[in-house]
Design goal:
alpha+beta, 4-stranded mixed sheet, 17 strands, globular
Length: 305
């Protein structure tokens, strides 16, 4: 039973659900059970729009217990904002709904970026997967209904210019908190400059602890279905925990944690840790005042046993 992560460099036009389906198909073709009870569980760690490319973490087996944590993780994007037109979808796929003959300079752009760094408020795009009375916002928008979404608080940790051309667009890199919509960020930057704009390129280069250095192409994924070893593309479960410290447990402590019991008298500082016995992940735990409590347990067996 495989447990771990496949980090897909998702191509444009492939949806996140389709990417998960591609992983399942290749696993089936490789002889793994992904349908029946007790089969391999597969899930993704953060939706990526079909028109966006880049890092899409896909969890297998016990790693699926960490997908919620991955959804909450910070992300880093490269995106290109082209001034002069705004579409209803805020990207190149939509219908143009506004135009402007204002094309800001690089100096003007740099001057407004501090307004969009740190905690900010933004209104999500009408064409988003958020639900309004049980219906997806993008379904309502496509049906011609007026979509009004509430503003939300997000954090832009860093925002910098990577390339500038007044006519073809500016490429920016943004490191953002969960819940941030890059299309909304681009729209608001353009409006702050007295113009309007559309996102013409969006690429996620980091999601939580995963970046493009560990990502594989769809072609390489498809090789697994043709007989290539899964181990060549599968990162271990603990790769999804690289951004938090580990606590080493002895066999008795590991047994207690697996049973859901609280460990006391631990010397580490308060916070989130992953507990391991030797190199084997045992659980995601929270430590408070010396007490260790299980957040999520991992049902893993040491291959050496």
């Amino acid at each position: 039973m495989p447990h771990g992560w496949i980090i897909l460099d998702k191509p444009v036009e492939l949806g996140s659900t389709q990417a998960v389906a591609a992983v399942k198909r290749n696993l089936r073709e490789a002889g793994f059970n992904v349908k029946l009870k007790g089969g391999v569980k597969v899930g993704h760690g953060g939706t990526l729009d079909p028109l966006a490319s880049g890092v899409l973490p896909i969890a297998l087996g016990e790693a699926t217990k960490l997908t919620g944590r991955m959804l909450d993780a910070d992300k880093t994007y490269l995106f290109t904002l082209r001034f002069g037109e705004e579409s209803d979808t805020l990207d190149a796929e939509g219908k143009v709904i506004a135009t402007s003959d204002v094309f800001p300079s690089a100096e003007e752009l740099a001057a407004v970026l501090p307004q969009f760094t740190g905690p900010i408020t933004q209104v999500p795009p009408a064409y988003s997967a958020l639900k309004i009375e049980g219906k997806r916002a993008y379904d309502l928008a496509r049906a011609g209904e007026e979509v009004t979404l509430k503003s939300r608080e997000v954090t832009i940790h860093a925002l910098e210019i990577h390339g500038f051309d007044a006519r073809d667009g500016v490429t920016l890199q943004a490191n953002v908190s969960k819940g941030t919509y890059i299309r909304s960020l681009a729209r608001d930057i353009a409006h702050a400059l007295g113009s309007c704009g559309t996102v013409t390129m969006l690429r996620r280069i980091k999601a939580g602890p995963f970046d493009l250095s560990g990502a594989i192409s769809l072609d390489k994924l498809n090789q697994v279905g043709k007989g290539a070893p899964l181990e060549q593309i599968l990162l271990p479960l603990e790769a999804g925990l690289d951004d938090i410290p580990a606590i080493d447990l002895d066999p008795e402590q590991a047994r207690a944690v697996r049973q859901g019991r609280v460990l006391t008298g631990m010397p580490q500082d308060d916070g989130l840790y992953w507990a391991r016995q030797d190199s084997l992940p045992v659980a995601l735990v929270e430590l408070s005042h010396g007490d260790v409590r299980v957040v999520r347990g991992f049902n893993l067996t040491d291959v050496a046993e």
